[in-house]
Amino acid sequence: MRIRRPADTNRRPGAGPHQGSSPGGPGRMVYRLAVLLTAAALVAGLAGICILAVWKSICRCEMFRISRITIEGCSHISKEEVMRLSQVTSRSNTLSLDPDRIAASIEQHQWVESVAVRRKLPDHLIISIKEYRPAALLNAGRLYMVDKNGHIFKKLTPEENLDLPIITGVKLDFQEDGRSVSCSGSAAAHILRALELIDMAGRGTRMLGSNNISEINISEDGRLTLYTADKGIPFCFGPQKLRTQFVRAEKILYQLYRSGKYDKVVRVDLAYTEDTAMASLKN
Q1: pTM to 2 decimals?
Q2: How many angstroms separate the CA atoms of 23 and 271, rounded?
């Protein structure tokens, strides 16, 4: 007599005798993935250490040690001062230098507007300086240099002998930060207007050139009065367009020179009416 084995009631329908989940299958996959990730991390770490070691070795290499420094654009700041501010020495390495840090350090000097630092491998460093160009002197209790954009960048020292027009009459609410002086409100706008006039006078050969401007006074309402350097004759500008009045001033000067009456001029009002100027003469 043959005895039948009872059917396996726990077997899934359709599953064969060797089918079903193997014990620990998913866990084994997670374990393998963890091993692979750990190995990859170790390889990446070792590669990083090797790269860092190679980089440090290169940074100590004599081939990349600074042997030549070119400094361009210096006029008012000495090359020795540039070197001091840059903190670059003969032992510096071109690859380990930070050009942005060097530029920011040199730009702390009052004469320096901007700096560009670039490397020329293997051992050459080039520092290009752009200095401020003073367009006028601003009398605000002391004399300050101001560029054509109205940036007040430096006090005038006794050693700095600059022959520039002087802007007067402005009451500044300025704050000095050790590098520059700033002003706000209407004062800044009035200064820019005076600088615009100086810029027009400095273009080409003019009847009223910038070399014949001694002073530009700014009144409380923003009107400009230009005093000539040769005779101190006041040319009064109104609130209208400066260029129109400047052209008018040159025409009047031409007529005065041509007629021989320039020495008799007391005052020239360039906005006597909206489209009329008037020159007042002695007697």
Answers
A1: 0.75
A2: 102
**Banded pLDDT at 112 (limits 50, 70, 90):** very high
- Mean confidence (pLDDT) of the chain: 84
Contact 174, 151 (CB under 8 A): no
Closest CA to 235 of 206, 204, 261, 212: 212
Measuring CA to CA, which residue among 93, 94, 112 is closest to residue 104?
112
pLDDT tens for each residue of 12-35: 554 444 444 455 567 778 777 777
- DSSP code, position 20: S
**Helix (H, G, I), strand (E, B), or coil: what is residue 146?**
strand
The answer to whether 184 and 192 are in contact (CB under 8 A) is: no
Residue 208 · residue 239 · CB < 8 Å: no
Domains belonging to the chain, first-starting first, are 62-131 (3.10.20.310), 134-281 (3.40.50.11690)
DSSP line for 190-207:
HHHHHHHHHHHHTSSS-T
Helices and strands, number each (H, E), in the chain: 5, 14
Phi-psi category of residue 173: left, alpha or beta, with phi > 0 → left and psi -120 to 50 → alpha: beta
Handedness of CA 26, 29, 35, 37 (dihedral sign): negative
200 phi and psi, to 5 degrees?
-65, -40
Check: CB of residue 200 under 8 Å from CB of residue 212.
Answer: no
Burial (CB count within 10 angstroms: exposed 0-12, middle 13-18, buried 19+), residue 76: middle
More confident site: 149 or 171:
149
Q: In what order do the strands lie in the sheet with 112-120?
A: 68-72, 124-131, 112-120
